[in-house]
Design goal:
There is one protein chain. It is built from 14 helices and no strands. The longest helix has 17 residues. The chain starts with 13 loop residues before the first helix and ends with a helix. The chain is 60% helix and 0% strand. Helix 1 packs antiparallel against helix 2, helix 6 runs antiparallel to helix 7 and helix 6 packs across helix 9. The chain is globular, with a radius of gyration of 20 Å. By secondary structure, the chain is an all-alpha fold.
């Protein structure tokens, strides 16, 4: 097949594909080695795409790109929501090597819980942290001294803390939950208190992650559920907090490995709906 871009064709032997994957990721799970030997071309493309999505070694970042830390805050609860307790601790250890504390990891899971529920996110992240800190877990290196006690700053900690608009974002003020309040006001009170807390709907306080980055996490989670309409609402809110279209698209694409390329397509539809609403 001709190569119109004149790029050198990669070596697709299983050994070469695995060597590139190991260089990018630091280690490779045994199950992926079987994939590489059976369908090396497929694993090559998985590694090429995954390395870009999660900014593994050799994929340069930039001022307009989400940090590796932010990408992990999206990927970890997404893995947990899928019940993946084999790979999630490896991601936790990567977070530790990036200087991330348990608190910021839990804050990311809290935002994802607004969509996927606390049992499959916050609780599962706690279990993954426990596994990552166990000497029996064989994958990924722990930093010297163990889990970080102090957070190493990353760009998103200072992003999305101030909003242009001033209207209320409380769950209780949405049409669906106003209807719920006519049936069970106590349910509405408690549900809105939880969601408003997860998304900082009343504004940022002393939390590590502000409302803008939390919206990126929620948008990705909604796209995994096929909720383009709801995602579009949160995309508009993310824009209000100064997040960019590139931020939003990269956040959505962080969950491609767990949920498939269709999630990105749903996200792109949601982004177009958000664009249309402000014309």
């Amino acid at each position: 097949m001709p190569n119109p871009q004149n790029y050198a064709e990669p070596d697709l032997s299983p050994e070469a594909v695995l060597a590139r994957a190991t260089k990018a990721r630091g280690d490779v799970f045994p199950e992926w080695k079987r994939v590489a030997h059976a369908i090396p071309g497929t694993y090559h493309l998985i590694n090429e795409t995954g390395s870009y999505l999660h900014q593994y070694h050799g994929q340069a970042g930039g001022t307009d790109k989400l940090s590796a830390q932010m990408r992990e805050l999206i990927a970890i609860p997404a893995l947990c929501a899928k019940g993946d307790m084999r790979h999630t601790p490896n991601h936790i250890r990567r977070c530790y090597r990036l200087g991330m504390t348990d608190q910021v990891i839990f804050e990311g899971a809290t935002a994802y819980a607004a969509v996927a529920g606390w049992a499959s996110t916050i609780l599962q992240v706690s279990l993954a942290i426990g596994e990552a800190n166990s000497p029996d877990y064989p994958f990924g290196a722990m930093p010297e001294g163990g889990a970080p006690k102090e957070l190493t700053p990353f760009p998103e900690l200072n992003m999305g803390r101030t909003r242009k608009a001033t209207h209320s974002d409380s769950l209780a003020d949405t049409p669906d939950w106003r209807y719920a309040a006519t049936i069970d006001p106590e349910l509405t009170k408690r549900a809105s208190a939880f969601i408003d807390h997860c998304l900082l709907n009343q504004g940022a306080g002393n939390e590590l992650l502000g409302p803008g980055p939390r919206e990126l996490i929620v948008i990705a989670a909604l796209c995994t559920r096929g909720e383009a309409e709801l995602a579009a609402e949160h995309i508009r809110r993310a824009y209000d907090y100064g997040m960019t279209k590139k931020n939003v698209l990269e956040a959505i694409c962080c969950v491609i490995p767990m949920t498939g390329m269709i999630t990105a397509q749903i996200g792109l539809r949601a982004m177009q709906k958000a664009d249309a609403a402000v014309r």
